[in-house]
Amino acid sequence: xxxxxxxxxxxxxxxxxxxxxxxxxxxxxxxxxxxxxxxxxxxxxxxxxxxxxxxxxxxxxxxxxxxxxxxxxxxxxxxxxxxxxxxxxxxxxxxxxxxxxxxxxxxxxxxxxxxxxxxxxxxxxxxxxxxxxxxxxxxxxxxxxxxxxxxxxxxxxxxxxxxxxxxxxxxxxxxxxxxxxxxxxxxxxxxxxxxxxxxxxxxxxxxxxxxxxxxxxxxxxxxxxxxxxxxxxxxxxxxxxxxxxxxxxxxxxxxxxxxxxxxxxxxxxxxxxxxxxxxxxxxxxxxxxxxxxxxxxxxxxxxxxxxxxxxxxxxxxxxxxxxxxxxxxxxxxxxxxxxxxxxxxxxxxxxxxxxxxxxxxxxxxxxxxxxxxxxxxxxxxxxxxxxxxxxxxxxxxxxxxxxxxxxxxxxxxxxxxxxxxxxxxxxxxxxxxxxxxxxxxxxxxxxxxxxxxxxxxxxxxxxxxxxxxxxxxxxxxxxxxxxxxxxxxxxxxxxxxxxxxxxxxxxxxxxxxxxxxxxxxxxxxxxxxxxxxxxxxxxx
Length: 540
What we know:
The protein is of the alpha/beta class and 540 residues long. 28% of the residues lie in helices and 18% in strands. The longest helix is centred in the middle third of the chain and has 29 residues.
């Protein structure tokens, strides 16, 4: 962890966010204009680091942030997957408001060469801070789109959303990036190409047989073309993995591709060098730097230094490597998919070692950062996040969040009610994914749980939990076991109706039209598919 004069950092996530704040020389917070460092890790569970109770995973640097800062124990991600949760984090709004959801099962952006992405009319905290004179940088993962109409328009690029500097992966480090990992796309594409090959091969053989036996009056031209396409499809199915790696697994500096495909073993030190370079260039501030780790998302690329060193296999190795750099996926509304670590550190301003159990959200970072920089939260749209500073400073006892909604794609799966006068947090599940085998805690045959269809259950009456007494959501409350069951249910359902009245129809960026691969949008170092380059070895 880099400790700089008058700066702030943090840890939180897609399934976890890391925040840490570093010293401020100003006692007047409203005029301090602190340097802000945001650290985010993908897929890091709340129970996977030492300061949240794990005594077998070594995360000393993150633990030190918690010792010196404020630890949130009810910190909630706005979605349980990368693309929508990142959109919410940057805009302070539920992803359904910006259209960063799907209605057909595409829960994240599937391709770098897709046209969907964070809409240009959305306002990120980076855009506001840039207008306030901050140097703004993003290093690491983006996964919020790249191009709209051509491979160079960069309409969804980080530099179009308020960042002065970008170095990292415009897409996401998926399993397709490493052939030894389970693939998100490769297997499905190979199956489709093989099926089409078999169809065309059968057509070609039928035409050949008909031509030779004079049963089918046909020239040799369609026979040759059918055979040629069959061969091309067979070759495509064989090389599709390599094509995906070259298409999606790349690094960029600003608008320039620097590596295509990525050299995985070099990525971690390159990102660290880039962070150090940005901080050195902007040490006089004010700056906002968002470090978005590729960790601990599959394929869990880990340097040899950390391989085999943890007690939890490759995942543990990757967590411990991510911690060194500092210093259950897709389950809709279940706590295991959305509750994440959250640590704020600001020596001399925030009390060290404080633990806050009030409901907070990743969306709260937006108004908190904007207020700290002396900016104003937009008044022309609904902002769902709340300023965290009063809670962190101890000037407020309770979170401003009375209700939080939990979406799966564009479908509302659950809602929570923080009943402040009783000190109780209720959780209501309207829809849950089917876990098979029963009680396994995983969705059968799937990496990512579905949001609709026959693989989800609609509950009537909805499931009710008291998270204050049952944070693992194991004891379903009923009218017989909970005297205020109907009162709680009525209050939550009324809040849901009020929330839904604030939603406006917007184009869904992750639906099929915005989430299919388009060759003309593919970022490429050379003529596609000859996308290969290695343009530099270090930061600039």
